[in-house]
Amino acid sequence: MRLDKGDSPEGPSGPAPMLICDLTQSYSPAGGGGVSTYLREKRDYILAKTPHSLLQIVPGPEDKIVVNGRHIWAEVGADPVRGSPNYRFILRTKIVRELLARFKPDVVESLCPWVLPWTAIHHRRAHPETALVAAYSTDFPNAHVYRVASAKFGSFLGKGFRWLSYGYAEITYREFDWVYTLSDDVCEVLAAHNVPRTSVLQLGVDIDMFHPLKRDPAFRRDLGLPGDGPLLVYAGRIDNEKRADRLIDLFRRLPPDLGAAMVLIGDGKLRSRLMDESAGLPIAFMGFVHDRAVLARTLASSDIYVSGMADETFGISIVEAQAAGLPVVGVASGAMIDRVPPGLGLLGPVDDTQQMADNVVALWHGDHQAIGKAARAHVEARFSWDRTFERLLSDIYPKALQSAAARRITGGRPQMVARPAIAPAI
């Protein structure tokens, strides 16, 4: 590994400072995504408001370590993911094990389901004092495995692959001292598969950064978009999982006299194709936006947030749009149902782009500004990163540490916690 600068981190004096490790495949410097946002916000919180140190291990183009005070950023060289070139997949787990053995974190938080959770488990077996926390942020057997397998092989085989994936999830996540999900429903799914040590963690938003006051009346003109109707906006990966192609179909179904335009923020394997298919339409593809201030300006300067994503696990981009004062048009599926309660937007059936178009028209001709104000108030009252990380550090991590201590005494797996039996969601 190459060390860019600095020495081993030393935290300020304070009660029981820990070294916390984030471990994930789901990071991209140019792909966006909730995990990348989470890593950045957690780093800022840990360094500004706690005595702890933070080690973050992610995939990168080459092996690299950067130490900056109490923050250690470690990239493990990995090849790009085929079809998603902004993302990389770590297979060189020996390097990850060496990093964990070198720094010996008190808590390892695993943020993805494949390969690296077992790297953390094997490290814990060699260093039993380590507490393991897992983020089960996506119900991947259903949202990813079944969706892809059923599309390729049909529903019957898709269900078989889903069953196998739930078996893998059960074997993997019951090894962790504690697991957090982003919704009560997913906690129930895990309980049905014998993973009972779970909590719900609400994610957050920077309500000062994402604010209606960031609206710029010149934004639409600067992008060269015509019309004086609603400016629709989407932020996220432009790929199949996010159903980004439905947004183009939605736009084609809007009445021409509505004067609408649309901005798509993000990158992904569908971007080039959708740009070609939408040539001549008032649609701007901004690509991935690194500058959060530019993203905040874009959201606040738009009128309606749109998304066709059916398997949203939390929806950070939705909450950011609501913080910017936007109503939402989406689909009645996944976490979007929780993020967009009645009065904050309109949801329709999955893949029903005509209904999405009708909902855009209905919002625009209704009191969309009042809905946007209600969305802003909703976010202010419920979501903040401070609340997220306070719960993580004061509730979830202590539970994991207690479970780890009990495991060391018994010499076995983390203690089981009784929960009501729930029928498996196969």
How would you describe the overall organization of this protein?
With 426 residues, the protein is an alpha/beta fold. It has two domains: 19-205 and 386-410, Rossmann fold, CATH 3.40.50.2000; 212-382, Glycogen Phosphorylase B (Rossmann fold, 3-Layer(aba) Sandwich). It has 15 helices and 16 strands. Strands 3-4-2-1-7-8-9-10 form an eight-stranded mixed sheet, sandwiched between helices. Strand 9 (178-181), helix 6 and strand 10 (198-200) form a beta-alpha-beta unit. The relative contact order is 0.12. Residues 5-14 and 416-426 have low confidence and may be disordered.
Describe the main β-sheet briefly.
8 strands, mixed
What global shape is seen?
Answer: globular
Estimate the helix proportion, in percent. Answer: 40-55%
Number of helices: 15
CATH architecture of the largest domain: 3-Layer(aba) Sandwich
